[in-house]
């Protein structure tokens, strides 16, 4: 069976849903960052596949920029996480409930 | 699409207010149900502990310093920029001087970032007590 | 052997990058000055930032002149797009930033302003917003959005309180999710059209008569979710009150204005062509979104006990109000959007600065949050001038006639009526009436109640001459808006009409 564009798109959608469930389900901040990375990289797969399929390079360009942005997002996120960990000793989202209303 | 042609505009207002409250209520209920269904329940402590072939798990004696994270973070940032140099390197001849000038500008910006990180002491390994 | 390509520098139109480059050069020079000589006073950095923003504004005004003469300017392989709404929104962004940066010159010492990085990040953020509005390339919008958002998360976290970190982390997780949604939505658009430029996507879709309408709607659902997070539309608003409460009042005020105008412009570019082509479902979704956002956030605002949280919910409600302009989608309503936001930024600047000058370091006994209503109780007896100012901003937010926001509200509701959305206009008017209640509640506290001992020592504790000047500017802008509305409207209509919106 030949692998077509549809397979890649289905793979991307499945990964996206996995990432989405991860964002909703995970309470650990580090795991939550993993989930957002899965979200963005699922899109990367789809972009590269579509770009090859229609023979246009801008999709691959988009994928490159998503990679760079995902990296800087992780950098900022880890920075926040380190400060948060130094302050509280925990990286649990349930700990963040000082504001209500 | 046709605009909402309701005979009495106030009736439309009423309907939309009811809809608003309905949607408002529905979002809260859905959010609550979804989070209840999806949330990780850490009730069973033993199930979540690390399995170490029988003996009781010992706590890790030395915690990893957060300094490692800082290094990993800087490495990641500078490492990922290769993504932009790679296509340029492949079509280096095709892109000519214009591409070269652009890439030099890009590297210059990276260098400013690097010098900044260096001067701020982010690359020094602080002694751990 | 392939021939190397030659790019004529003239065809690039590098000048279209000038406004953003000025902001970036400003940021870099702040960093370099810090490297060369550390420990300088924050006022120097404020001055440098203001100077570069002034240059930026000059470049934008220049572009405005060129635009009115020659029409839309494209540049840099058609990635940069300087049309009327790009120039207008950039002017609002830069002027808003120029008014918010001096709020760093407080009389109290704050941890974050000791770092020059604060101002550098601020400039990077402004450049990010400018990139976001001055393009119709989905890649460029994404980069601008993320540059600005990542800088903003860091700025929030720099305010050294545990609530600020909490706010930054919450905003960050929501923002990361929104970025994922945006990327996925633009992936679907790319899959069905093979292009990443919004105007080309629109042309291609119109050519095949919206054959893939199901996928278009799916991608629009993702886009609405992504921009719903940025614009804090209900039900994607959950982060807003927490983030506003956690960050400093100065930054919270900034967040309620500048990021939103940038997101509005992108939403305008993205949704407008679909609204015009009669894609009914998108209209219905937007209609419900607008009504729910306005009404639900007003109801939440009614029950708040903290003025800052109340203002957070009120800014959600205002965003919903303005989102109606994108739903209506006529030149008149889009003009109304910019007019409303320009007037709103002055009023909200004043309101949040009033909170900022009354900031207290420690809560007194029995105080539940930073700015409860009781804090302002009987303010007219201890500081009559301050109470009058705060009352003025509240009246303007409520839309009481002679003050700023009334004209914006009237123009927007008028545009809704004239394009046949009578019901929507009624809902907008009704919501303004509901909103009046919680703004008047603060006025009642200030003017009718007895002072509570203990709070008065914090009034204007954080004030300095520059902060008072900012409050003065905001007050002048709010009171005398009545004279500025007509000329403003003329200019805005000219810009909006000529860019085809």
Explain this structure to me?
Chain A is mostly helical and 101 residues long. In chain A, helix 1 packs antiparallel against helix 2 and helix 2 runs antiparallel to helix 3. Chain B has a domain of 56 residues. Chain B has five helices and no strands. The N terminus of chain B is likely disordered. Chain C has one domain. Chain C is built from 21 helices and two strands. A two-stranded antiparallel ribbon of chain C has the order 1-2. In chain C, strand 1 and strand 2 form a beta hairpin. Chain C is globular and about 75 Å long. The model of chain C has no long low-confidence stretch (mean pLDDT 89). The chains are: A mainly alpha (101), B mainly alpha (129), C mainly alpha (501).
The total number of structural domains of chain A is 1
- How is the quaternary structure best described? heterotrimer
Query: Helix coverage percent of residues of chain B?
Result: 55-70%
Structural class of chain A: mainly alpha
Please describe the topology of this protein:
The complex is a heterotrimer of chains A (101), B (129) and C (501).
Chain A: H1 5-25, H2 29-54, H3 58-88
Helix pairs in contact in A: 1-2, 2-3
Chain B: H1 9-38, H2 45-48, H3 67-80, H4 82-90, H5 92-119
Helix pairs in contact in B: 4-5
Chain C: H1 9-12, H2 18-36, H3 42-70, E1 73-75, E2 80-82, H4 84-100, H5 116-133, H6 138-158, H7 162-193, H8 198-207, H9 213-231, H10 239-246, H11 249-255, H12 258-276, H13 280-302, H14 307-328, H15 331-357, H16 379-382, H17 384-398, H18 404-418, H19 422-448, H20 465-479, H21 481-498
Antiparallel strand pairs in C: 1-2
Helix pairs in contact in C: 2-3, 2-5, 3-4, 3-5, 4-5, 4-12, 4-15, 4-21, 5-6, 5-12, 6-7, 7-8, 7-9, 7-10, 9-12, 10-14, 11-15, 12-14, 13-14, 13-19, 14-15, 14-19, 15-17, 15-18, 15-20, 15-21, 17-19, 17-20, 18-19
